[in-house]
Design a protein that fits this description.
Length: about 290
């Protein structure tokens, strides 16, 4: 079995790039006449970094638990820094979902099984699409970006996620204390804007896709209440939701394994890395995979 990689630039001006990690059909299966899937579910990942950077340990390492289960995996470098003003990150992820569906046959993807996952700020990006994919208020900006990128009829493909996994995600910027000048230097423009449209918790409806959330109660960067209140709103809207709240552990755990601990291994409780297996099982069930 081989993993083929490719990249597509969705917005050259903002350096928006989607990296694909594609499982090719097994040569052993072809020779031995063993059944090998030609269509797999897709997981599109948005790493965190406060809309200022894109954390590398929340890129490919975060995709691996899903790749091990046969998912075609994609990592999105969305708009950050001054380019992250609303709705740019939302547009970026929307275009990524559309692109995966537009190329589903070539990529070996089932277009009815496209999930998204985000960490921290990337979780905010994923939560925006999960809750606003159907709204027209930002679609003109997306149409302009599609035209600039010469992506043809990309807008005709659905941008609706079939499931979302939100990992210690920001869901409500207005729940944070006022961002002072010093703090503003460490986050992207969308966090400084803090406009109502950038708060996914305000846009939860029956149209929101099924959602899996996890957080640690000890997170001092993004309070766990961000996930708890989001889950509460999902319940009120009748949206399928699963929430896992761990007692201990710092912000930015990622997969929580040797590949991603970056010196914080001692601060990660033994139970927290289990979130990945729980998320895979939940997404499998949600997508019918």
């Amino acid at each position: 079995m081989r993993i083929r990689t490719e990249s597509v630039t969705l917005n050259g001006q903002r350096n928006v790039v989607l990296d694909a990690y594609i499982i090719e059909q097994s040569l052993t299966a072809q020779i031995g006449h063993i059944s090998s899937p030609t269509s797999r579910p897709a997981m599109i990942i948005c790493p965190g970094g406060g809309y200022r950077i894109l954390a590398d340990r929340e890129r490919l390492p975060a995709a691996m638990p899903f790749m091990e289960q046969g998912y075609q995996s994609f990592v999105l470098s969305y708009s950050i820094g001054d380019d992250s003003v609303y709705p740019h990150p939302l547009v970026d992820l929307s275009m990524a979902v559309r692109w995966v569906r537009a190329n589903a046959e070539r990529l070996g993807v089932n277009p009815d099984q496209v999930a998204i996952m985000g960490f921290s700020a990337g979780g905010h990006c994923a939560a925006m699409l999960a809750t606003q994919w159907h709204l027209d208020t930002w679609k003109e900006a997306e149409s302009i970006d599609i035209a600039r990128a010469n992506l043809g009829d990309l807008g005709s493909y659905s941008n609706q996620p079939n499931a979302a996994v939100l990992c210690y995600a920001i869901t409500d910027f207005h729940a944070f204390p006022n961002i002072d000048e010093r703090t503003a230097e460490t986050v992207g423009a969308i966090a400084v804007q803090r406009i109502p449209e950038s708060d996914p918790v305000n846009y939860i409806s029956a149209e929101t896709c099924p959602t899996f959330l996890w957080h640690t109660a000890a997170d001092e960067t993004v309070p766990a209440l961000q996930s708890v209140r989001f889950a509460e709103r999902l319940l009120e809207a009748g949206v399928p939701v699963e929430l896992h709240l761990y007692e201990r552990g710092p912000h930015g755990i990622s997969a929580g394994n040797k590949l991603t601990d970056y010196g914080i291994e001692d601060a990660i409780p033994a139970t927290v890395p289990g979130w990945a297996n729980l998320a895979v099982l939940w997404v499998n069930a949600t997508l019918g995979y």
